[in-house]
Amino acid sequence: MAVLTPPSAAGRPAAGRGRSRGGRAGGRRQVGWAFVAPFLLVFALVFLAPIAYSIHLSLFRDQLIGGNHFVGLGNYTQALHDHAFWSGLSRVGLFLVVQVPVMLGIALLVALALDSGRLYGRGFFRISIFLPYAVPAVVATLMWGFMYGKRFGLVASVNEHLHTSLPDPLAPGWVLASIGNIVTWEFVGYNMLIFYAALRVVPASLYEAASIDGAGQWRIIAAIKLPAIRGALVIATIFSVIGSFQLFNEPSILKNLAPNAITTYFTPNLYTYSLSFSGQQHNYAATIAIVMGVVTMIVAYVVQLRGMRKEV
Amino acid sequence: MTNRALRRWAPAVAAVAAAALGLTACGSSGGSDAKDGGSGASAVRSALAKGGDLTVWAWEPTLKQVVADFQAAYPKVHVKLVNAGTGNDQYTALQNAVQAGKGVPDVAQVEYYALSQFALGKSVADLSPYGAKDLSKTYSPGPWNSVNINGGVYGLPMDSGPMALFYNKKVFDTYKLPVPTTWEQYLDDARKLHAADPKAYITSDTGDAGMTTSLIWQAGGKPYTVDGTKVKVDFANDPGTAAYTKVWQQLVSEHLVSPVPGWSDQWYKGLADGTIATLATGAWMPANFSSGVAAASGDWRAAPLPQWQAGANASAENGGSSLAVMQAGGNKALAYAFAQYADQGAGVQTRIKGGAFPATTADLDSQAFLDTPFPYFGGQQANKIFSASAKNVLPGWSYLPYQVYANSVFNDTVGKAYVSSTTLADGLKAWQDRSVSYGKQQGFSVG
Amino acid sequence: MARPHTARLHTPGRPRRSVLLTALTSIVVLYALLPLAWLVVNACKTQPRLLDSFGLWFSGHFALWDNIRQTFTYDDHIFVRWLLNTLLYVVLGAGGATFLAVLGGYGLAKFDFSGRRAVFAVVIGAVAVPGAALAVPTFLMFSKMGLTDTPWAVVIPSLISPFGLYLMWVFAAEAIPDELLEAARVDGSGELRTFFRISLPLLAPGIVTVLLFTMVATWNNYFLPLIMIKNPDWYPLTIGLNSWNQQASTVGGQPVFNLVVTGSLLTIVPLVAAFLLLQRYWQSGLAAGSVKE
């Protein structure tokens, strides 16, 4: 199941290509596996085993009355017709389409600004925009939750002092945007740093050629910088896509402040959590998790394909 | 339970890295029953004399002192008190441990509304063999009914929450509002207060399953009927529910309740500065007033709960927990001994001193208890109100055997009434539907 | 093949500094720092003041030192215990995760064997499955192994960092010239010896970067310990703070929002310090993630 291509295919020379001509290739292969083995062993324990167990669980149904029995693909059929699941999925879909481009866009613009060398105090900008990444999601949501407070929070203070009527950030119509803001705040610096680091190592020769041609800044960005960091853009997008589909911490903590705006099936991940932890429906929760895993892989694969197509 | 979990789990793991971590076969740690230690009270006494280790999962803060005293009285017993989370967090942990068959505590704090779920799943032990059946006169009727499930006793009542109305006297005096004796009057006060000060609300409410069900209970409603595994949910045709929605819908539609979620920092602030003027809740609340709303000391008073029918004196329970003995625990007789010490013996006095509200009739009736002045309430002898309320709790209420789940989806359904044009009645109907479909999925026969 | 940390580090010419661009970027900085300012301001307030004063300015007497003292001493110095637990989890978890990622990334980059692509595909595929639903199966497995309620339940799952593996893979491919390894082999050096003596020093900047990312992940880990650890003596800081926060909604519990706020601030400080001190290293390490020639 080659869903995603390893980094070497994302625009970098394949490491060690051509080395396999060596006579001791067979021995090397084993040494290679030996280096990867510790990672894979732990990985199998903490990822593959629970997933295998979940697939197993998803074929059964355990009832408070009547016990456990095999239902085949019954849980999957139920998921296909589950309004709660689909509404959560379409919500994270919307989140993905809006929040990820906004976040990566800001991150990219800041990275380009830093890289342009036209900023005063570049080091300060770099570290301060990155700092929110160090804040635990629990603390971040706590802080933003306070500022969103309708009666005593920052929004309330602004409305009172400036006689504006900003909407309640925790109202049902706004809460998804408010969550998007928290996530953007947490990860804009992280993505900025990845882009910035990628920009820093674009070979100087490329720029020199361009300036001889008399290309302007925007032209250089479009023609040289962006193509040069495509690998970073693709990997950041993929991790952001996965993050969006797994949206959980922020809505689940914010639910204390907005109990009626954030339902128990607000995101698919929140839904699996509620099913499993409030409803003791481990089997159905496992089913939703497997379905979400497949959906996420498909979307990540599409992102990867698009990223590669542009490269040709 | 243990074996079933093991069977389901084994194939998955065998496929992977089992060997690497040296898995050992999991021996079931079944405990000894009351049978092998003699019967009833004597088994408990001999367990105490013999001593041993106990693990107690509870979040109730007064138990810390009780554990210390208990160990001093019985030096051979060692008790490990663990706060494994509050409410649902702890139930999740309990259910996980029970399913895994490992790490199950001996004693666990379980709220009344959640107890039947554990009793039905046989996760908690029936305490009848230890003499718990004879305690019906020891506890007030509300809590006692809650631990009596399908003919067994599945926990000892630890505290109780007979309801009362807490009101901010300063606010009521300022706006010359009468202390309401009926909910109609309460609604009237709410309108006057909010008109006089648009920042002030009669109470805060963002949809709380415990409070809604308690008020329906007080109104004489019986939306849940439970007979073993036969369950009926009916809010739509329940007269008590209708009485509740009639008044409460007006409070919500006219925006007379503050949209601040309970127990948040904003809520504490509202209680302190008078913008949340009353709270209808359990008698355990005073301890929280003194610790969390210290700034408003002297402003608040307690009063009997307003009535749905003028001149009645009906009440209901809100909150409260029992100590249950886990079926999978190792030493059940000793576990029972601890629960008895905390909930019936010397522990009760310790807990009352710590601010807890008892469930034991002897204490509820004791003159010293009734005469205790509450400095926080301006010296009011509030226990008189609470004790009377405990006696007036309407009989015949029951929660669903899966109330933990039902409460978790309350805000998905009834919550809509607080943020959209959905009515409370429609919300409750939606809640009913979700509860029914879950019950069916879980194999109950739902009518 | 250029070594990334020696690659050129500026745009041609010496561009003019721009006030406009600086001002625009400052908006983003303001956005990033505003909530942190809230945290600092409110850590300076007493519990009553916290609730009834404007959030973004100081009010009442300056209570920061008093709050810090209270945070450390409250409930028999439990905060200190949580801090030490977190350090333990970070040292074992982040250290181990980095070690595994370095070994794995090096193996994938420098040894040509079939199945390398499959490894990456499987890792990304597994990451795509939502963690919340895997929590219960993982809990049941760990419980059978007797690992729940022990530090291992937090440490072992922390040992896997997919992004770390990816980063080390790319970094190792770039930072270690094949010729160097060939030369070592010709000299008869064993693979393990070559790895430790020759490759590891070259990988240093990448290692620091991965270490920092895994540190953040372990330090901020919330969901996993929430399920695995029921004994407050083994709580990490995040769970401990949350339990303080929940104390406000417990019968007879004492709301300690001021300690939650101060504790949150104290939780962030070590990470921020680590970032500032190691800035030089992680920048060059990250750069490898996207070298193109």
Describe this structure in words.
The complex is a heterotrimer of chains A (312), B (447) and C (293). Chain A is mainly alpha-helical and 312 residues long. Chain A contains 13 helices and two strands. Chain A has a single domain (44-311), classed as MetI-like (MetI-like fold). In chain A, helix 1 (25-57) packs across helix 13 (282-311) and helix 12 (268-277) packs antiparallel against helix 13 (282-311). The model of chain A is unreliable at 1-23 (pLDDT under 50). Chain B contains 21 helices and 15 strands. Chain B is an alpha/beta fold. Chain B folds into two domains: 2-12 and 42-160 and 319-359, D-Maltodextrin-Binding Protein, domain 2 (3-Layer(aba) Sandwich), CATH 3.40.190.10; 163-316 and 373-446, Periplasmic binding protein-like II (D-Maltodextrin-Binding Protein, domain 2). Chain C folds into two domains: 19-62, no CATH class; 75-290, MetI-like (MetI-like fold, Orthogonal Bundle), CATH 1.10.3720. Chain C is 71% helix and 0% strand. In chain C, helix 8 packs across helix 9 and helix 9 (191-219) crosses helix 13 (279-287). Chains in contact: A-B, A-C, B-C. At the A-C interface, helix 1, helix 3, helix 4, helix 5 and helix 7 of A face helix 1, helix 3, helix 4, helix 5 and helix 7 of C.
List keywords for this structure.
heterotrimer; A: 312 residues; mainly alpha; MetI-like fold; two-stranded antiparallel ribbon; 13 helices; 2 strands; 68% helix; globular; disordered N terminus; B: 447 residues; alpha/beta; D-Maltodextrin-Binding Protein, domain 2; 2 domains; five-stranded mixed sheet; three-stranded antiparallel sheet; 21 helices; 44% helix
Summarize the structure.
The complex is a heterotrimer of chains A (312), B (447) and C (293). Chain B is built from 21 helices and 15 strands.
**What assembly state would you assign to the polypeptide chains in this entry?**
heterotrimer
**Helix/strand order of chain C, N-terminal first:** HHHHHHHHHHHHH
CATH fold call of the largest domain in chain C: MetI-like fold
For the termini of chain C, the CA-CA separation is 8 Å
Count of structural domains of chain C? 2
Give a short account of the largest sheet of chain C. none
Q: Structural class, judged by helices and strands of chain C?
A: mainly alpha
Most strands sheet of chain A: 2 strands, antiparallel
Shape of chain C: globular
Number of strands of chain A: 2
Report strand % of chain C. under 5%
Shape of chain A: globular
The residue-averaged pLDDT of chain C reads: 82
CATH architecture of the largest domain in chain C: Orthogonal Bundle
**Helical residues, percent of chain C:** over 70%
Family (chain C): Belongs to the binding-protein-dependent transport system permease family.
Protein name (chain C): Carbohydrate ABC transporter permease
Transmembrane segments (chain C): 20-41, 82-106, 118-140, 152-173, 194-219, 256-278
Main location (chain C): membrane
